[in-house]
Amino acid sequence: MERKHPQDSPADSPAGQLRPTETAPNFPPTQTRVGGVESLPALRAELKQAADEARLGHYEAAQAKLEQLLATLRQASTSTSRDEAHDPIQMFLLQAAALVACAQIREQLEQPAQAQAAFKQAAALFKQWLQPDASASGQDYCDYGVALYKLEQLAEARAAFQEALKRGVSDAQTNYYLGLLAQGDNAHEQAREYLTKAAELEPGDLGIHLALATSLAGLGQMDEAASTYRDVAFSLYKAKRRDDALTVLDLALKVKPDDYRARLGRADLLREQGQYEEALANVEQSLQLQPDNVYALGTKGQILRALLRFNEAEEVLRRALALDAAQDWLHAELAATLLALNRIDDARAPLEKALELGPDNPFTLALKAHLLHTLSQYADAVPIFERALSADPTQDWVYPELGFDLIMLSRYEEALKVLEGGFARQPQDTAPLLGLRGEALRYLGRYQEALSDIEQALTLRPDNPFLLGWKGELLSLLGRYQEAIEVLQQAIALAPELDWVYAHLSSAFNSLQRYDEALKAADQALARNTASAQALRNKGEALRRLGRHEDALRALDEALVVEPDNAYALGTKGQVLVALERNEEALAPLERAYELDKASWVFTALGLARLALGHFDELLKLVDQVLAQQPNDVVALELKGDALRRRGEHEQAVELFNRLLSVAPDNAAVLRMKGEVLLKQGNYTDALQALDRSLIIEPGDVSALQLRGETLRRSERYEEALQPLDAALVSVPDDAWRRRPKFCSGPLRGMEVSFGCTASWARSITRSTVMNWRSANWLRRWLAVSIRLGRSCTPASSATSPNTVPPSRRSTKPSSRILQWLGFSASKVSRLRTMGTATAQPHKPLTRKHWS
Hints:
43 helices; disordered N terminus; 852 residues; mainly alpha; disordered C terminus
C-alpha cells in the first residue's frame, strides 16, 4: 500500500521532496522560416521549446525539434539571399547552441558517440564565430563551456564559464559546471557554493544535488551528504527510477555506513522489486540501529507477509502498533496478514480502525473490498474496488479480483474492461488476468478467444490444474470432446480434489455417448462435493441415456434443489418425465426451462411434449413465435406440420411439409408424415412417392413400411402390399405377437374383429413400434387370408372416420417418431441432440475458489 515514507515526516527528513519542472511553456508555432536577422528570435524560441521538452524528459520530441532547427540553420548558412546573409555570425552561433542541446539529449538517450560528435561540431563553430566583443552573449559562452567540458578541455571550459558570469549569465547550468570544475580541483568549499546556488536555481535537477552531496562528503559533512543522497534517492523513487534510487542509497551508505534511513530506503525499494530476502536483511540492519522505529517494524511486517511468514508478520506488526497506534497503514497491514491466515473475524477490527484513521486510503479500501470478496459478497465488493482503483490505479492485485467479482455478477463486458486495465499495467505475471479473461469470454460464448487466452496462460503456468480444467471445459464446448477428456484427466492427476473438473469430465463423456464413464465421473465429483449441481445434472443425463429414468429423475431433482432455475436440469427432467409417460408433469419443467433459455433443444422437447398431449393450440402459438424470428427453422416447421396433420388440417399440413422439404429434402420423418396425409386425402400416387423417398433414407422405418403397405392395399395392389408389411415385421421382436391388442385375442376371431383391428391400425399409424408391429402383423395376416379366400380386400371400416374410434381405445402413448426425437430410441441417435444442440453444455456456476 501507499505509506508515509520517512522523508515525508519532518522528524525523519531534513529536506523536503524535490519537485521536477512541471510544464513546458506553450510557444506559438513559428510561421516564417526565412534565414535572416528578422527570423532569429523565432529560431531562438524554437531552441527554447526543445530545451523545455528535454527538461520534461520528452527527449524524442526535443530531438525532432532540434533536427528541424538545425536543418533550417544549415540552409540559411548556404543561402545567397541578402536577408539570410545579413548576420551570419548569429546564425552560426545559434547553430552551435543547437548542437550542444542536441548532444546533451544524445547523452540522455545513451548515444555517446553521436553526443561527442555533436559537441565537437559545436566547439568548432563557437571557436570560429564567437567574437570577444560586446555583441557576444553570456549564453553563447556558457554553451561553449559545456561543449569544452564534455570534450575534457577543462581549462578552456572554466574560462568560458567565467566569461559567461562576467556577461551576466549566472544560471543553474553555469554554476553547476563551475562547481564540477572546482570538485575536480578538490576545492570542495568553492564547489559547494556553486552547487548550492545551482540547486536553488534548479531544485528539480537531481544531477546538481548529487554533485552537491559529493562536495559535502569531500568537506567531511557526512550527515548532510547522506541526507542529500537520500533526498535524491527518494525523488528517483517517486519518478519510478528504482534502480537509480538504489545506486544513490548505496552512495549514502558509503559516506555514512550507519545511516539507518538509507538501509530502510533500500528495504522499501527491494521489497517493491520482489527481492524479499535482501529487503529483510536491510530492514533488520536498520532495526539494529533503531530497534523501536515504527516505520521499520511495519516494513518488516510487510516483507514477512510477502514471504508468507504470516505469524511472524503479525507479531512484528502488533509490536509496531503498540508503539504507535495512530498509523492507519499499520492497521491495514495487520488486517491483510490476518486475512492471509483466514482469520476473517480477527481481521475486521484492524481493518475498521484503518478506515477510521484513513477513510480514503486506496490500499485500505481495496482490502475492505477483498474481505467482502472473500465472503462472496461480490455486489458489495465491486464499488469499493472501483473506488480504490480510481484513487490508485497502480494496485495491480486489485484488477483480477475485481474482474472475478464482475464475472460472478454476470457483468462480463465490464469484467473484460477491468482486465484490460490490468494488462495495461504490464504486470510481470499475466496468468491470472489471462485466465479470468478466458472465463469472461467463455460466458459470452466466445469460446475460441477464451481458449486462446487459457492456452497462453498455460505457457506461463503449464501445471496449473485450474487452467487445465478451464481448457478442458472450453474444448468440450467447442465439440473437441476427446481432447477435452485428455486435458481434464491431466488436471485431475495434478489436483484430484477438484470436483468441478470431474463434473466437466462427466459432461465430455456424455457428449461422446460413453454414459457408463460419464456416470462414474459424476459420482467421483459428488464424492468430493455432494452439492455439485453440475455433477448431478450430468449424472441425470447419463442415467437418462442408460434408460434408468427413475434414478435420473432423483439426480435431477437434487440438482434443482441446488439450482432451482437451471435450464439444462429442468429440460432434462422434462425429457425423463416424458420417457416415464408422465407428460403432464413434464410440461412445467420444460416450460420453465424455455423461459430461462430459448435453446433449440429445449424448444424441441417442449414442442414434442405438447404434441404428445394433443395441446395443439399452445404448440402452434409457440411454434409461430419461433417462425416469426426464424422462418425456415426446421424443427418449428416440422412440429407445426405434425400438429396440423393431427388436427386433420391436411391441406395446410402438406403445404408446411413441402416448405420444410425445400429446406431439408432428406428429412425421412417429414416425408413419412406427408405420405400419411396424402394417403388420407386419397392421393395414393403422391403418397407412395413420398413414402418411397422416406424409405430410401431410412429403409427399416416400420411406420413408413406400414404406411406403404396400406397405401398399396387401398390402391388394390394386394400382392405388392405384402412386401413392405413383411419387411416391417422383420424389424420388431419375435415375441411381439404375444403382446397383440386385447381386442384381438386370436389370429382370426372372425372378419368383423379383423376389420376392427385394421381400422384401429389405420388411425394409429404413428404410434409406438410395438403398436405398429401389431397393426402390420394383423393386416398382413388379414390380407393373406383375404387373398386366399378370394374376398374383397377393402374392409368396411376403412371408410370410417378416424374420430369414430372410442376414446377408451385410442393410444395415449407418444409416437415412435417422438420417442426417437427425444432420444429414447436405442437404434438411432436422438433427434433432439442432432438439431445442432448435441454440443450444448450448461454453463457452470463459477463457485470454485479463485485459483490465482
